[in-house]
Design brief:
Elements (H helix, E strand, L loop, with lengths): L6 H6 L8 H24 L5 H30 L11 H15 L4 E2 L5 E6 L8 E10 L2 E10 H24 L7 H11 L2 H15 L8 H13 L6 H25 L13 H12 L1 H4 L14 H9 L5 H11 L4 H12 L6
Antiparallel strand pairs: 1-2, 2-3, 3-4
Helix pairs in contact: 2-3, 3-4, 3-5, 6-7, 6-9, 7-8, 8-9, 10-13
Length: about 350
């Protein structure tokens, strides 16, 4: 599978003033072609002078950053959704946007929601087209924290090429089966009530068979299905936490249901589950301090975000009520990134007053 395989689809998609999808796909396709040329040139051209190396490194980081955006937009342009792409599950590429922001985006002045300020300094004495090292100086509450980061460019490029191929393959498979009609949404509605593990396995297999997805696929339906399977085997003794687990299962099942309907261009009544006691207490706590806490919530479902832990600590410092405190401590105790995502997702589902 290559970018060229999608050229015909990009050319055929309708382009008009009433619908942005055609031009979005076209612009994204061209940008991906441009970045391929940049990467090819980067790998072939040797540099010795510091200025030339800096120019190449900055261009590569910005190019890959833009290319990932282009993959999302190509997916939306051709399929109407970003479901075929899930770059955040690739740890190396997930870090790319933070590296790019540190060095190319805002190296001389980064501000953080908790009032912190940061600066990044690239060590040009050991800079090469194979590797760079930089330090980030973060000032928070009159304290200085220094973080050192080594970046290897070859693995970064290799992971980008790998993920790009997976995404392009999934996009083409979906296009070939666009407007497929199945009973997967109806099966998910039943699963939402029963939470039967065997039923979920059957749904996953039918989805893969319908759209011809295999184990290499990064499609968000399969990713969320895997999260649900993890939830089904997650055990807690505390009754309040059992209620949270049950809610997270239904929350993710509803996400799959909505996705399955979208992929068939269908509309049905949304699935609903009552909000559990601890989560209700958390939402009540947030409402009381919304202007301070809400900005700290956007990274709670991303354990790999540089501000994930500090944002959580910032929320805990606001003297939460008993229910909110219990839920946040449960969240904090998790070391598995997937579990952090699952709990963080229901916390982030809070809707502000405005």
């Amino acid at each position: 599978m290559s970018l060229e395989s999608l050229r015909a689809y990009v050319k055929e998609i309708e382009k008009d003033e009433r619908n942005s999808h055609g031009y979005r796909a076209h612009a994204s396709f061209l940008m991906l072609e441009h970045v391929d040329l940049m990467v090819e040139r980067y790998l072939k051209e040797k540099q010795i002078e510091r200025g030339a190396i800096l120019l190449d490194v900055f261009g590569l980081l910005q190019g890959l950053f833009v290319a990932i955006d282009a993959l999302y937009d190509l997916s939306i342009g051709l399929t109407r959704y970003k479901y075929p792409i899930n770059i955040n599950q690739n740890k190396i590429l997930h870090e790319l946007k933070y590296i790019r922001n540190d060095i190319v985006g805002h190296p001389t002045h980064r501000t953080y929601p908790n009032g912190g300020m940061g600066f990044s300094i690239l060590d040009t004495s050991i800079l090469s087209k194979e590797k760079m090292t930089y330090k980030t100086y973060i000032y928070e509450k009159n304290t200085l924290k220094i973080e050192t980061k080594d970046v290897l460019f070859e693995p970064l490029i290799a992971q980008y090429k790998k993920e790009k191929l997976v995404v392009l393959k999934d996009i083409e498979r979906y296009i070939k089966h666009d407007q497929a009609t199945t009973d997967i949404p109806e099966q998910l509605a039943i699963f939402h009530e029963t939470l039967n593990e065997e039923s979920l396995y059957q749904i996953i297999e039918e989805f893969k068979k319908t759209y011809e997805f295999d184990e290499s696929s990064s499609h968000r339906f399969l990713w969320r299905s895997n999260l649900l399977l993890q939830l089904l085997s997650w055990q807690e003794e505390d009754d309040d936490l059992k209620e949270i687990l049950l809610y997270m299962m239904k929350f993710q099942a509803a996400k799959l249901y909505d996705m399955a309907l979208d992929m068939e261009d269908r509309k049905q009544k949304a699935l609903y589950a009552p909000i559990p006691k601890l989560l209700h207490g958390f939402y009540k706590f947030v409402r009381k301090h919304e202007k301070i806490i809400y900005p700290l919530m956007k990274n709670l479902n991303d354990a790999g975000h540089p501000l994930h832990q500090s944002d959580l600590e910032g929320i805990l410092s606001m003297n939460p009520n008993d229910d909110a405190y219990k839920l946040l401590q449960f969240f904090k105790a998790q070391t598995n990134p997937d579990r952090r995502f699952l709990i963080g997702s229901i916390l982030r589902a809070y809707r502000p007053k405005s």
